[in-house]
Design goal:
CATH superfamily of the largest domain: Tetracycline Repressor, domain 2
CATH architecture of the largest domain: Orthogonal Bundle
Number of domains: 2
Radius of gyration: 34 Å
Largest sheet: 3 strands, antiparallel
């Protein structure tokens, strides 16, 4: 098609303006080369767009990633600004934090050291966590606490309460975990905002776990229904945090869990 148009214009140019054959060719090339280049560029864009509909790929535009998929080529998915968090990288960082805090004093473990040991850029850590305390908190809650055995309800709420305390005491007896949690509690005394985060992610979560056991006790008819759940949860956890933080020689172990439940049983048990 292009050749036909070319020779048609060539013939008209030669007749109307009576220029030489060579000058006519030069004139037309000067006019048509930019047109051919633009046409090829448009064709290339169309071809790439068609490929996008057949195989997913990513375009990056500024700080926004547009992800095209074969299922919906006309509706790109907008992702949040910044690079997506790699789960493998996140786990590596959290593992590194738990190991370093367990081996060294909290105040001596810097973001630089964490980044170097995890083999990631320091900017990646600051992109995902606002501070070292926030990073360590996630390492000991979302990452480490997920390793605790799940609570399995039985037909005895008192036995469930004892089992829950046993598993929590056993988890907190790990030297690396204990050292990190003590460091977080110390940090929380100096930073009010971080203290709120610690409460929401650790203390409140543990109290809610106890409330689920209390409600199970109501359903089984074993626990009084007029219990002050908050006060009861605080009494139970207070018995742990005292031994955990005070430096006393007395242990928080299986026998201690059993003793706590035995002492509370007369106050918890439904009398009718």
């Amino acid at each position: 098609m292009f050749l036909n148009v070319f020779f048609h214009i060539l013939e008209r140019t030669h007749c109307d303006y009576e220029v030489s054959h060579s000058r006519a060719i030069g004139f037309l090339l000067l006019k048509f080369v930019p047109l051919l280049y633009v046409s090829y560029y448009i064709y290339d864009i169309v071809w790439r767009t068609n490929q996008a509909c057949q195989q997913p790929f990513d375009f990056k535009q500024g700080n926004t990633t547009l992800a095209h998929s074969s299922d919906n080529c006309e509706k790109p998915v907008l992702r949040a600004p910044g690079r997506p968090r790699s789960e493998a990288t996140r786990r590596t960082i959290l593992d590194t934090v738990v190991r370093l805090i367990g081996q060294h004093e909290y105040r001596t473990v810097s973001i630089d050291r964490i980044a170097a040991d995890a083999k990631v850029g320091k900017q990646s850590i600051y992109r995902w966590w606002g501070s070292k305390a926030d990073l360590v908190l996630e390492a000991y809650t979302d990452h480490s606490l997920s390793g605790m055995p799940p609570i399995r309800k039985s037909q005895d709420a008192f036995a469930d309460l004892e089992a829950d305390l046993e598993r929590f005491f056993a988890f907190m007896s790990d030297s690396q975990i204990a050292k990190g949690v003590r460091s977080l509690i110390a940090e929380a005394q100096l930073d009010e905002d971080f203290r709120k985060k610690l409460y929401e992610n650790v203390h409140r979560v543990r109290c809610e776990a106890l409330r689920r056991i209390f409600r199970h006790g109501y359903e089984l008819g074993q626990f009084r229904s007029d219990l002050d759940e908050n006060a009861l949860a605080h009494v139970i956890h207070g018995s742990f945090w005292y031994r955990f933080l005070s430096g006393t020689k007395y242990k928080y172990d299986k026998a201690y869990a059993k003793n706590i439940v035995s002492l509370l049983r007369p106050a918890l048990e439904r009398k009718d």
